[in-house]
């Protein structure tokens, strides 16, 4: 995976970018919980956000760290 951190297919397959191993454990946990919730909730609506908060507390903090990592990764990628 080059452009995504993870994906969840309709067939129930989870795929994770190996670069997650280089990030903070909490950020990796965020990505795992994010994808697992998609087994039951296909969108990022109120229920999804509520469950993310129940499992990870201030999940938005980890989401922001992940966003910053993706931005830095994009800057380092050869053009």
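Q: What amino acid sequence fits the structure above?
A:
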């Amino acid at each position: 995976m080059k452009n995504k951190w993870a994906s969840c297919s309709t067939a129930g397959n989870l795929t994770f970018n190996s670069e997650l191993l280089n990030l903070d454990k909490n950020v990796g946990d965020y990505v795992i919980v994010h994808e697992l919730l998609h087994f039951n909730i296909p969108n990022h609506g109120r229920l999804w956000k509520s469950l993310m908060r129940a499992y990870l507390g201030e999940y938005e903090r980890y989401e922001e760290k992940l966003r910053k990592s993706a931005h830095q990764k994009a800057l380092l990628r050869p053009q």
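Q: And what stands out in the fold?
A: The mean pLDDT is 87.
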